[in-house]
Design brief:
Radius of gyration: 23 Å
Number of domains: 3
Number of strands: 22
Number of helices: 9
Length: 492
Amino acid sequence: MKSKQIFKLLASAAAVSAGLLGLAGQAQADVQIIINNINAAGVGFNDTTPVDPVGGNTGTTLGEQRLIAFTYAANLWGKSLTSPVPIYINAQFSALTCTATSATLGSAGTTSVFRDFANAPKAGTWYSYALANKLAGAYLGTANAAQINANFNINLGKTGCLDGQPFYLGLDGNHGPSAVDFIATLQHEMGHGVGFQTFTSGSTGNQQGYVNASNPGYPSVWDHYLMGSATGKLWKDMTAAERVASAISVDKLVWTGSNVTTLAPQVLRVGVPKATITGSAAGTAAGLYATGEASFGPSVADAPKSGTLMPIVPTSTADTSAIGLSLGCDPLTGNNAKAAQGNIVLISRGSCNFAVKARNAQDAGAIGVLIVNNAAGVAGMSGADAALVIPTLMIDQTVGANLLAKLATRSRTSSGVQATMALSGTQLAGADALGRLMMYVPNPFVSGSSVSHFDTTATRNLLMEPAINGDLTQSVIPPFDLTLPLLKDIGW
């Protein structure tokens, strides 16, 4: 399952209270990771609520299970990375941003950045604390200081905070469709903490340390590998204005590191999901369109669909999208139910989870769903519903508006517009035509998520997308993932 998850860079270490508790997650081989539990007594990692052991996690209180899971995830990273310097993480549970249908699962980031230290591979370049220590072979700040801050959502699964979808604390990945895998969340956040991030602002384009035009700061090591495919420039060579434009370029920011590019064919699927529009009434809307694919229901790789395209129309002002389509958040009734029966339906993004929209369409007899984005471009779609057996794709807002105009003269059950949902071509899913991984740069800019994640169009799903997917494997290497290859590109 894929829940909305937001990464937020933390700029400075949290204050550590007296009576700090520590839990060492030491790997069998390559790097020691030490977790500093900074929650108060009875809270978060110290919660004494009794629980039953689950999925190989033998803890008997909620706090103990959370700590055991964190140690397990730390051991996974410890076995993947090499460093002579231990990595200290300040960790806690606290209240993070929530709604009933989405939530910030966690946040993590380096506590400090360093440049021009001994053995730095690139001059005038910022590195995260843990990576800089590894490259220097020694602590660059205060000995044993935390290099990473990590924070996790204490309210997850409660009313008003991704209702009914709590963290699953088992170690076996058997979280099911109604829980969020805590191990995957921990791996994701630690990935950010060890350097899967840029310190250059995507919203202003300013580099870390910016003062003014005469003193513009320095690029992150990430900026040496981020390329705007529209300009052919690396982020380190762009102006601030060019970086701002690149950070909302939808599908035109790519990673140029050789490890990721070389290994991507071992991980990503060949062929990208597209929607083909034909039919006597299609007119200027006819064509082959890029789409984003859902992480729920069958893939169009396994279940391509063709059929008449029918719009789902608003039933109230609250149900009306910007282009005039229904949001599809309520069960389809009346003419909308008739329109859906045996057809592919057109619904707008917004207000509720993608899987809810698809389930409402399926329950009304639809054979496929095209969801129109509420912004430019397309994206992968999150959600979970094991009962979904029809495919769902996302199309661009402008394409959707054009389609809706062509559907204006339809009958209740037919439109003269046909849609085919299937894979197309030999391009890797989540990469550009040259095989370079695309980074997540939606328009508008999403603070805390844009730039510092792989794009959501990647298939198979990757750990460092901006949302946690239910099919992650706990591996960060090919053929399952590309996180470690990217970290190798920047110096790990």
